[in-house]
UniProtKB/TrEMBL annotation:
PANTHER family: POLYNUCLEOTIDE 5'-TRIPHOSPHATASE CTL1-RELATED, POLYNUCLEOTIDE 5'-TRIPHOSPHATASE-RELATED. It is found in: Nucleus. The keyword Translocase does not apply. GO terms for molecular function: mRNA 5'-triphosphate monophosphatase activity; polynucleotide 5'-phosphatase activity. It comes from Psilocybe cubensis. Residues 1-50, 182-210 are annotated as: Disordered. First step of mRNA capping. Converts the 5'-triphosphate end of a nascent mRNA chain into a diphosphate end. Keywords: Hydrolase, mRNA capping, mRNA processing, Nucleus. This is mRNA-capping enzyme subunit beta.
Length: 352
């Protein structure tokens, strides 16, 4: 494997396997009349419709995309204000986007808001909860789409990597007084992300230590304490699904002793593309020996290299850094948001 450059990958044309088309005909559609009577072929042939070159704006630059900048600012804030940065330098920042539904807490149905296009919700402004579980039909739908995208590998496009993992997560109660290096209690970390996206939901179930093992080999893959930093919910009224951006901190800890509180089995298909990975997972949870298992289906997009994410965040806007290093973080988040949007726009019917 060749070493990866610290610079962000060059921009590439969007793949056309997945859908990213407007929801209604546009003027470029030969079948669209845009509300007017169709013109005959003879009359249209005498009309010049080619558009001359246009400037991006009256200033010659493209206006800043406030949607992407809001998400970039949120993630950057979560990173630079994260707790335990000095106590546990080995802690990893996890940035992920989950596909799901925003539900009204009172009715249980999908939330309906007076907006026409995808919108970032102000944390705590609506009485909603995010549900990442999808139906088995949706799971198969995304599996088919991603497998097709992997097999086609259009010329000039980066190929998708693929792996199929069978994992067991065992959860243990977090003991702040232990010598595991976990440090302070969860209350000290709860204030870190509340201002920009915690939404009052952080730490609801208390912090846990998660031990992940390979189901086949029984090898321990990781043992971490996960600290939730903050979330941003994105409502997508034109699509079948919404999405959520989450920032977490994963602190490596020694393997706990004793009995786990609960376990979950993950049948995970993982696709990798440049700086990102897409995980399609069937999760079977067992909360207690006598309780029936619960099966969920989830789709998430994650930034693959936490160390690279952190390095670009620290260079963001640094006047002493070269331009490509100053802008690398925003380019990374722009591609992250674009990938999340592509997944949401290709969600079909059949959500829970």
């Amino acid at each position: 494997m060749q070493p990866r450059s610290s610079s962000p990958p060059p921009l590439k044309r969007a793949r056309r396997t997945l859908t990213d088309s407007p929801p209604y005909p546009t003027s470029s559609d030969p079948h669209s009349t845009n509300g007017h009577a169709s013109t005959s072929a003879s009359s249209s042939s005498n009309t010049t419709t080619s558009l001359p070159p246009l400037s991006l704006s009256i200033l010659g630059v493209e206006p800043l995309d406030e949607f992407i900048k809001e998400i970039a600012d949120f993630i950057h804030h979560m990173i630079v204000t994260r707790p335990y940065a000095h106590e546990y330098p080995a802690a990893r920042v996890e940035v992920e986007a989950k596909i799901g539904l925003l539900r009204d807490r009172a009715t249980g149905g999908r939330v309906v808001l007076p907006v026409l296009v995808e919108t970032i919700l102000a944390p705590g402004a609506t009485d909603t909860r995010f549900e990442s579980n999808m139906s088995l039909h949706q799971h198969k739908h995304f599996n088919t789409l991603l497998n097709k995208l992997k097999m086609e590998s259009p010329s000039g496009a980066s190929p998708l990597g693929y792996s199929h993992l069978y994992l067991i997560d065992s959860f243990y109660a977090f003991d702040p007084s232990s010598s595991s290096g976990a440090g302070a209690s969860s209350s000290s970390s709860s204030s870190g992300g509340m201002g920009m996206g915690g939404g009052g939901e952080r730490g609801e179930r208390g912090e846990k230590v998660r031990v992940t093992t390979d189901e086949k080999t029984k090898a321990v893959i990781e043992c971490v304490r996960k600290v939730r930093l903050g979330d941003l919910n994105v409502y997508s009224p034109k699509r079948e699904a919404d999405w959520r951006v989450s920032v977490n901190l994963e602190i490596p800890v020694p393997r706990p002793t004793g009995t786990s509180t609960h376990t979950r089995r993950k049948d995970r298909i993982s696709y990798s593309h440049e700086e990102f990975k897409i995980d399609l997972t069937q999760v079977t949870s067992s909360m207690s020996p006598n309780a029936p298992p619960q099966t969920l289906h989830e789709l998430e997009l994650e930034i693959a290299r936490p160390d690279f994410l952190l390095a670009t965040a620290l260079k963001r806007g640094d006047p002493a850094a070269p331009e490509h290093e100053r802008s690398a973080f925003d380019e990374l988040i722009r591609a992250f948001v674009n990938n999340a949007r592509i997944l949401v726009r290709n969600s079909g019917e059949g959500w829970q």
